[in-house]
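Quick check before the chapter quiz. The format below is the same one you will see on the exam, so make sure you can read both the input and the output lines.
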Amino acid sequence: MLQSVAATALSALMVGVFVVQVTVFAGENAATPVILIVPLLLIAWVRSRHTAELVRWVRRRG
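Here is the expected output.
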């Protein structure tokens, strides 16, 4: 159930990595985080129904 949440969080981390690569390392290897973001966002999109189920489950529990 957490695949979508994990993929979204890792995508956000990759955005931060991209910013660091561009600013600190002058763009060296900046394409790597962008390349990783694409499949992560695809996983998050495909699993979005599971995220909705997770939100409903958490609301019922709390």
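If your answer matched, good. The two ends are 18 Å apart (CA to CA).
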